[in-house]
Amino acid sequence: MFLCPFCDRKLSVMDGAFRPMPQVGFRCPTCSYRFVLRRGALCQDILDRTAARIAGDREPRGAVISEGGAGAYQETSQVRCMQCGATRVAYHQMQTRSADEGMTTFYRCISCGHQWREQ
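That's the DNA-directed RNA polymerase subunit sequence above. Prediction below.
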């Protein structure tokens, strides 16, 4: 699925086989944006170039939230590890369910590496 880089609408297939100069590609049903496929182009090449061009124009929409790396954690001494009893625990919070529910807190023990979460 391709999106219009100007209005973010889903592009529809444009089949110009009945024109004097056949054109195959995609067009936006809202604005005048057209993306014409050139002859002999590989589909994967077109997908890669289009994705790179769109990514360079704006931030990606609906980015997937991940737990992140070690830099996403903050250290606390208010929580005790359930496995080894250490008080040096790192944590971070993330919204994992709907917006009307609380944040989920992910913990990681610095001493033993045990991980758990609280909702």
